[in-house]
Amino acid sequence: MSGAPPRLAERLLKWSLGAADREAVLGDMCEEYAARTEQNGPRAAGRWYWAQVRRSLLVNVRRRMFESEHASPWNSPHTTSSNGSVGGGFMQDLRYAMRALVKAPGFATVVVLTLALGIGANTAIFSVVDAVLLRPLPYPAPDRIVSFAWRFPSGVSPANVTPLTFEYWQQHAQAFDGFALTSGANFNMVRDGTADRVRGVSGTSDFFKVIGISPAAGRGFLPEECVPGSAHVAVISHGLWLRVFGGAADAVGKSITLNDRQYTVIGVMPASFSYEPEADLWYPLQLRVDPRDKGLNYTAIGRLRAGTTLEQAQSETGRLFEQFQAANPQHMPRNARTIDLIRLQDFLVADIRPLLLVLLGAVGLVLLIACGNVANLLLSRSAARARDMAIRSALGAGSYRLARQTVTECLLLSLAGGLAGVALASAGVRALLASIPGQLPRLGTVAVDDRVLGFTLLVSAALGIVFGMIGSIRVLKSDPGSVLKAAAGTGVDVARHRLSNALVIGEVALSVILLVGAGLLVATFVNLRGIRLGFDTDNILAVQLSPSVAKFGSAAAGTALDRRLIERIRAIPGVSAVTTASSLPLERGPNFIFGIDGDPPDKVTYVELRAVGPDYLSTLGITLRAGRGLGASDADNSLPVVVVNEALAKLFGGPSSALGRRVIIGRGTPGGGAQREIVGVASDVADGRPGTRVFPTMYLPRTQFASGASVNVLIRTGGSVQIAADVRRAVLAIDPKLPIARMRSMNDVAWAALAQQRFNMLLTSVFAATALALAMVGLYGLLSYQVAQRTREIGVRMALGARRSDVLRMIVRRGLILTGIGLVIGAAASLALARFLKTLLFGVTATSPWVYATVAGVLLLVAFLASMVPARRAMRADPVIALRSE
Amino acid sequence: MSYDALGEFEQSLLLAIAHLGDGAYGVTIRQEIDRRTGREIAVGALYTSLARLERKGYVRSTMSGSTPQRGGRSKRHFTLKAAGAAALRQSRERLTLMWEGLEPDLRRTRP
User: Nearest Cβ partner of A56 from B43, B51, B67?
Assistant: First the structure.
């Protein structure tokens, strides 16, 4: 029908009008719209229509709110709300629902709070999941930026590659419009006498092209700048630009001092740019492509060429992989089948994804349990109002109308719950972020923002509608006559009874799943804590220094620094032993490859290297299994020696067999090749990968190995003595510009090593405890309600001679049976879902009988207590009063 | 007999209905006022006031006649009741009495 008024405007107008006015008003508007269309055209007519709607909306709505006083007189009193959709409208439903809920404040409060808890927890976790996993990276066409992943028989894992691999792809791959290699490093930036640690990301010349964002001022890297030996330049972040140059417009061309070298600033990134969350600057990766460098140390990123699909790029990559691997087998992990191209986003979050998904699942279960409680509450309420509904129905209210009112009520409750949940979530998210250990990628973008609010609204509205529909079905199906005829107190709806029981059983089952999960993670954590660390962590202070490469990078300067540090610090009262090390125990050290003298030259193994100072083993309390430790006599001009750990000594057949053998570190790499003799075997020390088997480790004297700029000083004190200030003074006395990056006790380091597992355990325990509490509240509520419903029956029983203890036992038994059924179902479900938790576990299988038994015990105990309260209440009832009650 | 005082808007409505006679309904009432005074009334305000006038007993309304231009909806016709006419006359009289002695530009009339 051409010339119909704008549908939305008409609908709005219709909604705002009372039933009696609709016909006349809408007809008038329709007629005038047609006339105006003829006169001035449809556009002008539409504009007029909308203007009228705008001006009239508020007046109409207000008039309807005060309907009773200002009702249209042509709305005859006989027109009841039985006219279904014609009568009243949404506004009336809303007012009625609000009034009904205000009359039952306890019920409304409990429902809103329960939903707030469930929805709030989901909102909090979703905001993290959204920011980290779902939201695309803030670069143009982020799905077209890809990185590499190895495909192993057991799964896929993100890949780092060798320089030769990068060069091969750069030369042969057609699928990319930009292909770069990246790495990173920390720098000392010295400025006005103070030193700061800054994080840098290195990239080859295509880096900014792949990312798709160019510097806001200045430029990116030129190919000439990525050649080894060329000038040092850097692109700085917006934050760094503000800090160092105060936002001055002429920063480009100035220079900053990093590790005692001058880097010319060639560009400044836009304020909104973020790569790694803490990257302060980007510098050219001056890559030396040496076929002998087989270290998997660099990340490859590429942007797909326009018009190339991921499948096409993938098949090309597979082909190149086969060709490259045939020619250079040692540049890939041994059992890698092929290289998969994955989105850069997936590459960055691969480690954290399993945990986040588990959390999302857990919090979803909590919401389900909360909904179970709310459903039960709604059921009781609908039973209580059954008579009220029946009367209204008998007086002419259409069942459709009643159903709509039920839905409105439920929507109101769930939206209120959602609102309260958002408030809870905002607070919870902050606490959550503060406690997440380690580097959560894109952490800074986690916030309760529009997308998250939209999610919450969706969940709340969906819940409201679902609850309302379920409630309405009962209303629509019930027969008012029979409801009214039934005497109050005996109208026990058997079907509703069964539904309530089923809900509680379901809640118990879901909470069992969460309890088992939490129990498994607790067991994991306990196992990890119980791992013998291999040394004594008490009373050791770890001081991390970052001397500049220019001053202390050479072996001689580094040795001298070590000696002076040890001398000065040993002189501090309270210190019983001092040593140095390039990396801390319990944290990962650099990986290296080595070969055994006498083995074929291409037989190499990976080893963890720890370059340490004299008396390292004795200071830390690591037991010697054979031979000696490294001491002051192992200098740069004496015999090159190493001490190995037991795991490595196994390669030789045992500690005693390893002594005297020779190894070649860095065999087959540029700069490697010197033979070193094994002079000692130390017992195993846990390394930075808790829960995996101990890696073969080698200790070398720092004097015999150039190990990079940072040095840690490990100080054992006689007891718990405060020496931090003295240490600081000693370091400053050696060199006032030597920054102390960190000072921690070894116990803190040990604590931090398990931070991730502790976090997993704590968070899931919180959810499991919440789930258990909700389920038990539900059980308690159900039993209380049933006791109240069956007051007469209990009275009759007692009058007929049942003892009070029999009544108690009956109620408690019911509670335990419901719990027991839920327990069995939940346990079966847990066994089925067990494999999702596998990657997070250690020392315990997902089917551990201990955990299940403990969960069962805790659950039955709590259920017993929850049942006791209503049972005791029933027990104390006076049979006379019970029989009299109506 | 004294009638409730009419507001200026209500007077316009009643006068428009008086002008239109049998053909007074929402669209024509609005057009009449617009044509004479250039004032465009919002449909919400129109019906609110008409409802009030009917409650006071000044107008009577009946439903009649749907047309395709109205999307098949019927019209609500309004007619002036005796009480409404009397109220109008009362308003005019009062106003006239108050204006007596003043020019339209509010200067005093020369005696």
Answer: B43
- The nearest CA of chain B is from the CA of A79 a distance in Å of 16
Tokens at A882, concatenated: 């019970």
> What single-letter amino acid sits at A867?
S
Q: What is the CA radius of gyration of chain A?
A: 36
The dihedral through the CA atoms of A650, A653, A658, A664 has a sign that is: negative
Distance of residue B90 Cα from the nearest chain A Cα, in angstroms: 24
**Cβ separation A28–B48 shorter than 8 A:** no
Q: What is the pLDDT of residues A435-464, one digit of tens each?
A: 777 666 677 778 888 888 888 888 888 988
Which of B22, B23, B39, B27 is CA-nearest to residue B11?
Answer: B39
Query: How many Cβ pairs within 8 Å bridge chains A and B?
Result: 79
Count of Cβ atoms closer than 10 Å to residue A381 Cβ: 17
| Burial classification of residue A131, based on how many CB atoms lie within 10 Å of its CB (0-12 exposed, 13-18 middle, 19 or more buried) | buried
Q: Which residue has the tokens 């050290």?
A: A589
Q: Of A29, A58, A63, which has the smallest distance from its Cβ to B43's Cβ? A: A29
Residue B1 to chain A, least CA–CA distance (Å)? 24
Distance CA A294, CA A592 (A): 10
**Best interface-test mutation with B: which of A74, A76, A79 has the largest number of B CBs within 10 A?**
A74
Summarize pLDDT for A347-400 with one digit per residue, the tens: 888 878 888 888 898 899 999 899 888 888 888 887 777 777 777 777 777 777
Closest chain A C-alpha to B21 CA, distance in angstroms: 18
Tell me the C-alpha distance between A446 and A448, whole Å.
Answer: 7
Percentage of residues of chain A with pLDDT beyond 90: 13
Which pLDDT does position A1 carry in this prediction? 42
* Closest alpha carbon within chain B to A64: B48
Backbone φ and ψ of A787, nearest 5°: -60, -45
> CB–CB of B76 and A34 under 8 A?
no
Smallest CA–CA separation between A377 and chain B, in Å?
42
Q: Computed from CA positions of residues A405, A409, A410, A415, in that sequence, does the dihedral angle turn out positive or negative?
A: positive
| Chain A contact set for B76 (CB, 8 A) | 23-24, 74
| Chain A residues in contact with B81 (beta carbon < 8 A) | none
pLDDT at residue B103 is higher than 80? yes
pLDDT tens digits, A561-616: 888 888 888 888 888 899 988 888 887 767 777 777 777 766 667 788 888 888 89
Per DSSP bridges, beta strands A641-645 and A711-717 are: unpaired
Q: What is the dihedral of CA A612, A618, A623, A624, to 10 degrees?
A: 70
Rounded CA gap, A666 and A668, in Å? Answer: 6
**pLDDT band for position A477 (cuts 50, 70, 90):** low
**Residue A25 to residue B47, Cβ atoms within 8 A:** yes
**Is the ipTM value over 0.90, yes or no?**
no
Assigned token pair, B23: 């053909």
Average pLDDT value for residue range A172-199: 82
Q: Chain B contacts of A24, Cβ < 8 Å? A: 25-26, 47, 63, 73-76
Q: Which residues of B touch A32 (CB under 8 A)?
A: 27, 30
CA A728 to each of CA A148, A568, A736, A744: distance values in angstroms, whole numbers, following the listed order:
44, 11, 10, 13
Q: Which residue has the tokens 């090390």?
A: A581
A44-103: pLDDT as tens digits: 999 999 999 999 988 888 777 665 545 556 654 444 444 344 445 677 788 888 888 888
- Quickly list DSSP for A781-801: HHHHHHHHHTHHHHHHHHHTT
Residue A693 pLDDT > 60: yes
pTM for this structure? 0.68
Residue A825 neighbours by CB distance under 10 Å: 17
Q: Is the dihedral of CA A236, A242, A246, A248 positive or negative?
A: positive
Cα distance between residue A701 and residue A719, in whole Å: 28
